[in-house]
Design brief:
Length: 269
């Protein structure tokens, strides 16, 4: 009786373990299939995937170039303000007579040292103090130089409009090579050329200001280019980057044209 009862008690346990065994076999089979699928080599990318990858790379490199352009535009504009923009505005304010008049150098002094160079007719470099300087003084008459060439006058009998005024290479009296070369400037107007008539430009706003070079067209062209080019490049670069990466700009550009009330169903619907 004991053996039969033990046999009866063990039978249910064997039948209860069969479902768990089947589940373990199924999980083992599923894990083997997943391992087999993971070990398979991925297929070649489709045409759409290649295009998407190419567009992502192009967008990345374009964004890098635009960011660099925006930064360089800011630095270029800050650099152009003291060297181009400010002198151009000063030239416009001075209101030079576009027709060259007749000038004569009356004195040429070459000095060295900061104390002796309180001013200079020509200075190479607008941000540093002049240690060596050429100081030229001129007389000028409002007789046009082309008329003077046609009918020369005796210098002793000419009634000069302004006498012994400072003569500058340009409005600022300074510049950078190769456009401004103070040695060549002194050789052209000073030394042995003292007392020789030459064309110059006087300021109608400040009659005591006389310069050797002036061109309204060149001055205006440099001013416009220095203002437009850096600012346009900066605005375009920042605009494109904002459109691509700014969430607010993206929402504003892709905003639905529907009215807010139209998004909800009507009473009849």
């Amino acid at each position: 009786m004991r053996s039969s009862s033990s046999t009866l008690s063990a039978a249910p346990s064997l039948t209860m373990s069969k479902p768990s065994l089947n589940n373990s076999k199924a999980s083992l089979t599923h894990s083997r299939q997943s391992i087999t699928e993971s070990n398979k080599e991925p297929g070649p990318p489709t045409r759409e995937e290649k295009i998407a990858e190419f567009l992502d790379k192009a967008k990345f490199y374009t964004s890098l170039c635009l960011g660099t352009t925006a930064i360089l535009s800011v630095f270029a504009f800050l650099f152009l303000i003291p060297f181009v923009v400010d002198p151009a505005i000063s030239t416009i304010v001075a209101d030079y007579d576009p027709v060259p008049v007749t000038c004569v150098v009356t004195d040429h002094v070459y000095s060295e040292g900061r104390r002796n160079c309180t001013w200079s007719s020509c200075r190479e470099g607008c941000t540093t103090e002049a240690i060596r300087c050429h100081q030229l003084l001129v007389n000028y008459t409002k007789i046009a130089y082309h008329e003077w060439q046609k009918q020369p006058r005796d210098l002793d009998n000419v009634e000069w409009d302004v006498m012994d005024t400072k003569f500058l290479v340009n409005t600022e009296g300074c510049g950078y090579p190769p456009r401004v070369n103070c040695t060549e400037f002194a050789k052209k107007y000073g030394y042995s050329h003292v007392g020789e008539p030459f064309p110059c430009y006087f300021s109608r706003a400040y009659p005591e200001m006389v310069v050797a070079r002036y061109s309204w067209d060149d001055n205006l062209k440099h001013l416009i280019l220095s203002l437009i080019i850096p600012n346009v490049l900066f605005a375009v670069s920042i605009g494109v980057l904002s459109y691509w990466y700014c969430p607010c700009c993206d929402k504003a550009c892709h905003k639905s044209p529907r009215v807010y009330a139209e998004k909800y169903p009507t009473k009849e619907k």
